[in-house]
Amino acid sequence: MSSAARGLLCRFGLGHVEGLTHFQPVSHPQSSPLLKIQILTIFPDVCRAVLQSSILKRAGEKGLANLEAVDLRQWTGDAHRTVDDAPYGGGPGMVMKIEPIDKALAALRSPDSKVILMSPQGRKFSDAVARDLSRERDLILLCGHYEGIDQRVADHLIDDEISIGDYVLTSGVLPALVVTDAVVRLLPGVLGDDQSAQQDSFAHGLLDHPHYTRPADYNGWKVPEILLGGNHAAIESWRHDTALEATRRRRPDLLGESR
Ligand code: 9D3
């Protein structure tokens, strides 16, 4: 696993989740070629706003990833640029049509592409899935925007189907951005050395320990005395103890305990 990924596990205490009982390296090729992610959506502007900020933007600028929002309406043929229609069998809501999606994927995909449908019916996203995806060369994240997508898309046009968790959102756009963010930060060179090295030191499969910065006393709320001295061994031990205590209290499941 890259140092960055290990940092993630520690920070969010995922070290014991779903068979992830020990840390496994993400092995990327020595000079990994760039990862391309295309988010196919009717709201490309929402995606661009996120892709053009902070770490994701820098990953693009450093040439580590090629992140793109693609407007699905490019592959509509009518004046209204229609991407949805009423459901066969009746009922409320609209269903996304297969035709624009099929044409878009035919234009975008290459033999290396992995096409992923973002959907509440998908397999649950996790750190392990993010690490797998970070080894791909070309991801196409297809976002739904209505109550559903014609089932033939899932049956015939995609390689994988992913949900980010058991809550209902209004579309697949935010999930696609969540997946993009989680995958891109795992690519070698995306996080600064500082950041990944620092996260390395948390790598114990626990929730994070508390952090403090100046002032040492704010309104009478004091920084723990031990952090103000220079005893690094004592500080390390305090950090481990508080991390373990936080994990016991808030996420006993991560320690293999029920509550
Ligand atoms: C009434 C059935 N609904 C499914 C739970 C229909 C429906 C609601 C909302 C279908 C799609 C959506 C929009 N959500 C996504 O496209 C989506 C999603 C999500 O809502 N939660 C967690 N992960 C994802 S990935 C895509």
Question: What do you see in this structure?
Answer:
The protein is an alpha/beta fold. The chain has 2 domains: 3-184, Alpha/beta knot, CATH 3.40.1280.10; 200-258, tRNA(m1g37)methyltransferase, domain 2 (Trp Operon Repressor, Chain A, Orthogonal Bundle). The chain has 9 helices and 10 strands. The chain has helices spanning 3-11, 44-51, 54-61, 98-108, 127-133, 151-156, 173-184, 193-200, 232-250; strands at residues 35-41, 65-71, 84-85, 95-96, 113-124, 138-143, 148-149, 160-163, 217-218, 221-222. It has a 5-stranded parallel beta sheet with strand order 2-1-6-5-8, sandwiched between helices. Strands 3-4-7 form a 3-stranded mixed beta sheet. α1 (3-11) crosses α8. It is elongated, with a radius of gyration of 22 Å. The site of ligand 9D3 has 16 residues, from β5.
Report the major sheet.
5 strands, parallel
Order of helices and strands: HEHHEEEHEHEEHEHHEEH
CATH class of the largest domain: Alpha Beta
Number of domains: 2
CATH architecture classification of the largest domain: 3-Layer(aba) Sandwich
CATH topology of the largest domain: Alpha/beta knot
Strand content: 15-25%
CA-based gyration radius = 22 Å
Fraction of residues in helix: 25-40%
* Major sheet: arrangement of strands: 2-1-6-5-8
CATH evolutionary superfamily of the largest domain: SPOUT methyltransferase, trefoil knot domain
Q: What is the compact description of this entry?
A:
This protein has 259 residues and is of the alpha/beta class. 34% of the residues lie in helices and 18% in strands. The chain has 2 domains: 182 residues, SPOUT methyltransferase, trefoil knot domain (Alpha/beta knot); 59 residues, Trp Operon Repressor, Chain A (Orthogonal Bundle).
